[in-house]
Design goal:
CATH class of the largest domain: Alpha Beta
Number of domains: 2
Largest sheet: 6 strands, parallel
Number of strands: 8
Distance between the termini: 27 Å
CATH topology of the largest domain: Rossmann fold
Order of helices and strands: HEEHHHEHEHEHEHEHEH
CATH architecture of the largest domain: 3-Layer(aba) Sandwich
CATH superfamily of the largest domain: HAD superfamily/HAD-like
Number of helices: 10
Helix content: 40-55%
Length: about 280
């Protein structure tokens, strides 16, 4: 651990009715984070680590989440939603799930756009009814890894998730890990996951964080996380803590595949190796 931490320390350094434009609703601001540092001490650039939430950081019971989702979709679409329509959801944004389901019901793009905010509000309410704090668990090693990462002045930790912003913030607060994150992009910001990446870059700049696109790493558990990283030419560290095994994540093109996030030494060594590749390239 000492080697990896020392090496990294040497590195050169929404919808209006759902969330504010800075992406911090329910999450601490840069100045209130427990690890916030004066900007002048951060150096010329930082590494931005963007973590997916479900299946990567947290495990949330499937049954109540699906019940909330089916209730919200059924309410807005005014029809029952077959369970088989909700099988391939890993890595999709909540916005995309609504759009895909509405399309199966014959809705036009204009109708989907017109009703998306209603779906957002309805789903947030249904989620609050069905999903309880006891349904949310932090995956093994996550808290320890985040605790190490936030001691590194050249690392900024953020989230990039398909969850609507209020739902993501609620999950992170329930798990007690919300203070680790400075910035994020969410499923209420855009329906397409890959479009969330430039949104989080913009929000980081708005907070005065000296991040650069080429020093961004996505951490996720699904092929859609990997494809999101590929869209911007950035590395993806995939973990086998979600519904996909190592072979599926390798096949999707993950830069590195880890079994879990329990081994902080290995994760930090991966970051150091990625930094060496980036410095060589640029």
């Amino acid at each position: 651990m000492t080697f990896a931490i020392t090496a990294l320390k040497r590195l050169s350094v929404a919808p209006d009715d759902i969330a504010g434009k800075d992406g911090t609703i329910g999450l601490p601001t840069a100045t209130s984070c427990i690890f916030a540092q004066p900007y002048e001490r951060l150096g010329p650039s930082m590494w931005l680590l963007l973590f997916d939430v479900d299946g990567t950081l947290l495990q949330v019971r499937r049954q109540p989440v699906r019940a909330a989702l089916r209730e919200a979709l059924g309410t807005v679409l005014r029809r029952s939603v077959p369970q088989e329509w909700l099988e391939d959801l890993a890595g999709k944004t909540d916005w995309q799930i609504f759009a895909d389901t509405a399309t199966l019901c014959g809705w036009s793009k204009e109708a989907i756009q017109e009703h998306r905010r209603l779906f957002f509000r309805t789903y947030v309410r249904a989620h609050a009814h069905w999903v309880h704090p006891s349904d949310v668990d932090v995956l093994p090693g996550v808290r320890e890894l985040l605790s190490h990462l936030v001691t590194l002045p050249v690392v900024t930790v953020g989230v990039l998730t398909g969850n609507l912003q209020p739902i993501a913030a609620w999950k992170l607060r329930c798990a007690g890990i919300a203070p680790f994150f400075r910035v994020g992009a969410f499923g209420s910001d855009h329906w397409e996951r890959a479009r969330l990446v430039p949104i989080v870059w913009q929000r980081a700049r708005m907070q005065g964080l000296p991040v650069r696109p080429e020093r961004t790493v996505l951490v996720g558990d699904s092929p859609r996380d990997v494809l999101c990283a590929h869209a911007w030419g950035i590395p993806c560290v995939a973990v086998c803590t979600g519904p996909f095994d190592a072979s599926a994540l390798h096949a999707a093109g993950a830069t590195v595949v880890l079994p879990t996030l329990q081994d902080s030494v290995t994760f930090l060594r991966v970051l150091y190796e990625l930094q060496a590749r980036t410095d060589h390239r640029y």
